[in-house]
Specification:
With 223 residues, this protein is an alpha+beta fold. Helices cover 21% and strands 19% of the residues. A hairpin with a 6-residue loop joins β2 and β3. The longest helix is centred in the N-terminal third of the chain and has 8 residues.
Length: 223
């Protein structure tokens, strides 16, 4: 496991004043492109990996099957009640009804309503590009192949807001160990679903779709 030293973490006072920092560089106009980085998910088409990066591409099929509804905030079970700063967890309602998801709308309070009929099952994630073992994972595979862990993290958005949220899942490093990134791979590129029929926001030209995000390989392999 690669350890990222704390000295590389942006100090909180710098993070909170990043807008002033961008202004000082004369690149405040870049903010609109950066805001989409808060989105918990986004777009995707079939990716050939020609960019020289291992690629994950996710998407649902056209079936109308639905996963069970998530528990409400009265039944959600968490093993930790605060984050690393001692702040209490947000409620389940707050977490699931305040979302950055520009594929639906830029209005955070309206995303949940617009997403209520979104088809998220079955779902698959394709990993290709600079990997020794390209593989497509079914969502059910991801739920059973890896031990599910619960962690509490503070989600910090580039817009300046944050939430304390319990997450359930597994370290990305475990998936990458299976596909084996090649030695020349330097970055991991995420590209998600492109589906204007389900994502009304993708019918606009406000942003370039599909949404793409990335990590350095050492970041992706960090626990």
């Amino acid at each position: 496991m690669i350890k990222i030293p704390s000295s590389e973490i942006t100090p909180e006072h710098v993070y909170l004043n990043r807008r002033e920092f961008l202004k000082s560089l004369g690149i405040v106009g870049a903010g609109a492109a950066v805001l989409a980085a808060c989105a918990p998910s986004a777009p995707a088409t079939n990716n050939t990996g020609s960019s020289g990066k291992p690629t994950t591409t996710s998407g649902s099929s056209s079936t109308s099957a639905q996963v069970p509804d998530p528990p409400d905030d009265t039944t959600l079970q968490v093993s930790v009640s605060t984050d690393e700063l001692g702040d209490s967890l947000n409620t389940y309602k707050e977490i699931t009804n305040y979302n950055n998801f520009y594929e639906f709308t830029v209005n955070k309070e309206k995303v949940a309503g617009l997403a209520k009929d979104f088809v998220s099952y079955p779902w698959s994630v394709e990993v290709d590009g600079l990997v020794n073992t390209p593989k497509t994972f079914d969502i059910d595979d991801l739920r059973t192949m890896f031990d599910q862990e619960e962690r509490v993290y503070r989600l910090r958005c580039v817009e300046g807001w944050s939430m304390v949220i319990p997450w359930m899942g597994f370290p990305l490093a475990k998936l990458l160990e299976i596909v084996e990134p090649k030695s020349e791979a330097q970055h991991l590129r995420f590209e998600t679903l492109l589906d204007p029929d389900q994502f009304p926001g993708q019918r606009s030209n406000w942003f370039e779709w599909p949404y793409i995000e990335g990590l350095r390989i050492d970041e992706a392999m960090n626990d």
